[in-house]
Design brief:
The chain is mainly beta and 377 residues long. The chain is built from four helices and 25 strands.
Length: 377
């Protein structure tokens, strides 16, 4: 039987990516032996609808709003073409993009608190080398005024319809402080023009913030002297639920702390000899300072934490690789755990804060492996 048509353009080899509806999740085993960056062929894809195929020759970025000199309107925007952007001073940024729902399935499997939405494991995250123009450069050229408080990039992909309601094109306000700080309008990913699925010809890259901030296929940017609202900062991408003040938290910004082993789920590990376990940890709030690993035969809370060795080349980077030597004491089922602490002191606990839409899972993931019997001597 033929595969259903994909909303994604790039090939999705089973060894690298797992298809789930319109999205594709990276397999963590596909990062084993890789450097700091996630190769583009295995970078996760999250589409609200489908990847549009756009023409850089006719593409325009249109800026308008009350935060620009002369307050140009949607119909009288300041325009930039692809070549205009390419001629502006270029900058590179090695930045992490993580879906706010990454790790969502552990709310159900570890805490008995299921949440609707894409049932991501830990593979909705990636680090790439992005090249483009600073958003601040384009905003200043477009006539940014001191009155601007929010900017709202909007994508050129189809309008998003959910539960019978058309929410319009994907768009989400970004506070002017972050917009001017380290945000890129990227046209290259890992040294090549952006692939269609990752936002060709131009996407926003907001380092360390929830992926929805990094609008792909950007076609316009509203710059406003008053706060902006869209479904993506009001009814979506906030923490909803009983634990929240008035039932809803602030719009999500930086991602929390997470750790992942570069192993398949239910990996088979050779017995009878020392193995080196590898993984990565990250946080949107700052560099990772330490990582600890605990390995037990059961699912009980761990108390035997020991430090992992951090890869020196990643210090201060977008994420931190680490390794941990382990000699399995016996064949059978073992539970691997890793927990990290970032430069702000934020860490990972046994449970994450439950919330209605299953965002920001930052709990310690219990990763099962099977240790094989050693070969006879
Ligand atoms: N225009 C547009 N931008 C978008 C999206 C989208 O559906 N449309 N998805 C967002 C979400 S939820 C995430 S997690 C990231 C994923 O980026 P990637 O597909 O390049 O990994 O893109 C964001 N930007
Ligand atoms: Mo996302």
């Amino acid at each position: 039987m033929a595969e259903p048509p994909s909303s994604i353009v790039k090939p999705l080899p089973e060894a690298l990516l797992a298809r789930q509806d319109g999205n594709a999740e990276m397999h963590w085993a596909a990062m084993a032996g890789q450097g700091h960056l996630v190769p583009t062929d295995r970078f996760f894809v999250r589409n609200h609808t489908r990847t549009p195929v756009l023409d850089a020759g006719t593409w325009r970025l249109r800026l308008f709003g009350t935060g620009l000199r002369g307050a140009p309107t949607r119909h009288t925007p300041i325009e930039f073409g692809y070549r205009d952007l390419r001629e502006l001073p270029a900058e590179e940024s090695v930045a992490l993009i993580e879906c706010a729902g990454n790790g969502r399935r552990f709310f159900a499997s570890q805490q008995g608190e299921p949440a609707p939405g894409a049932p991501w494991g830990l593979g909705a995250v990636g680090v790439a080398r992005w090249r483009g123009v600073r958003l601040s450069t384009v905003l200043h050229r477009a006539g940014l005024t001191d009155a601007a408080v929010d900017v709202q990039p909007e994508g050129l992909d189809p309008e998003y319809v959910t539960g019978g309601v058309n929410l319009g094109r994907v768009r989400r306000p970004l506070p002017i402080g972050k917009a001017l700080h380290d945000v890129l309008l990227a046209y290259e990913m890992n040294g090549r023009p952006l692939p269609a699925d990752h936002g060709f010809p131009v996407r926003v890259v907001v380092p360390g913030w929830v992926g929805i901030s990094s609008v792909k296929w950007v076609g316009s940017i509203e710059v406003s002297a008053t706060p902006l609202f869209s479904p993506w900062n009001t009814r979506l991408y906030r923490m909803f639920g009983p634990g929240q003040p008035d039932g809803a938290g602030v719009p999500l910004a930086a991602v929390g702390v997470k750790s992942a082993f570069e192993l398949p789920w239910d990996a088979r590990v050779p017995g009878g000899r020392e193995v080196v376990l590898r993984g990565r940890s990250w946080s949107g709030h700052g560099p990772i300072r330490s990582v600890e690993v605990s390995i037990r035969p059961d699912d009980a809370d761990a108390d035997d934490w020991r430090p992992a060795r951090l890869v020196a080349a990643d210090r201060g980077g977008a994420w931190q690789r680490w390794r941990f030597r382990w000699r399995p004491p016996a064949p059978g089922r073992w539970i691997l755990r890793a927990r990290a602490t970032d430069a702000t002191g934020a860490g990972q606990a046994d449970r994450a804060t439950a919330n209605d839409l299953g965002y920001l899972f930052d709990g310690i993931v219990r990763h099962p492996v099977t240790v094989l019997a050693p070969p006879p001597a």
